[in-house]
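Appendix B. One record, verbatim.
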Amino acid sequence: MCEDVKALVGREPSVVHAVGEDRAVQAAAVFKLLADPTRIRIVALLSDCGELTVGELAGLIGRKPTIVSQHLSKLRLAKVVVGRQEGARVHYRLLEEHPGELVRQALMQVEHMTQEHPAHHRTASGASAPRAAAAPAVGDPDFVEALA
């Protein structure tokens, strides 16, 4: 048990140090909502670009507008995105920055799992800290097994 958690015994635990069952279930639901490649791309684009319409998102990710709209509906119901009507178009944006950060962190973790020297750790000169062992490639059974 880490020292910080030991110090919390008998006091109200922080969200970071002690996660109760209900909170863990809720957090898992967030990951489940984002566990779709199309939704990951939508959240990443909205995080980077701010507001985009269904048509703009569809064009950027190469999916049909109806498919993008279905994913946006799920994200809207979960209070991840919000729409702003402008004429006949709805402009979507992230309600908060947290989903974009989760996606960004997940993509950085993929770099750790698939690259010996993750791009986000490289300096301007291209140098990076050495890693203990090479990670399996995305297509390797070991990679998929590690995600299961």
